[in-house]
Amino acid sequence: MGRHRHIRIDATRMRKAVMAAPRIPPIHCLLSFEALARLRSVTLAAEELSVTPSAVSHRMRQLETQLGVRLFARSDFSLTADGAAYLGHVRQGLQALQQMPGSAPALGTAKLRLAVTPTFSRQILLPRLAMFRHAYPEIELTLQVAIPLLDVKAEEADIEVRFGTGPYTGVEQVRILSDEVCPCASPDYLHEFGPFGEFDKLADVSRARIIRSPLEPWSTWFKAVGLALPEPREGAQFNDVGLMCDAAAAGFGVTLMRLKLGRDWLDSGRLVRLSPRQVASPNHHFLCWKPGTLERWECAAFVDWLRQALA
Fold this sequence. Notes:
The chain is α+β, with helices and mostly antiparallel strands. It has helices at residues 2-20, 27-39, 42-49, 53-67, 81-98, 118-135, 187-193, 202-206, 219-225, 241-249, 263-267, 297-310; strands at residues 110-116, 139-147, 152-153, 159-164, 172-185, 255-258, 272-273, 279-289.
């Protein structure tokens, strides 16, 4: 009797251990999640999986319930931060399951070509890119420089970051970053030639060396502070926001700086604001792609990830 009682106790402990172990989601739920995240359509996912659209919807509810998180943010099937992170794990797991024993590891086949404006790339994209690589290790990125306003790039790209007022013809697009501007200069320049008040008086503006750029016309600031001044025609000119900030930090004069793109210069003390006021810029950063591009899962994944990273 004692021996049988110990057997029953051990069996009970085993059942409790099994019940406490985390459940792996059903494979059909994971396949449906991957297809829906890639195709962004219940109908297309159902066709690919040879099931009904309602089956895909039921599987998504089952998966979200089991995980205890929301995977999709909106009706367009853009991923939440949790969904984007989980998708990377799911794809790695599915890829491993497809690998035959003894065969060589599958080579990454998802290649994504990006055309990115220079300062946006350095100040906004690259500091966050490690998160994308962690979530999507199977996507190989190729970055090239795009010229702001002109939308010129060296080679064809799958997705572009454009800078301007938009909208753009012939492409689908989404605004990903807006900014505000404020006059800034280096502490050394202010010590030698300042003070300039809040840079909203004609006398202060007229005696400053102005740094110019077609990317951020001074008319935006002049109009906001009530100065009836034309666009400056003299002074150093640059076609890159980062070069403008570097020139101002080197003592070239006063620049109209985008505060988000120029945050590093302010945080380091290389530049200081001349005014507590900031004005909305008419220019924005947009993600652009040709119609049909987001049918490729890697392109849709990048668009969703960057929108959420900058939200």
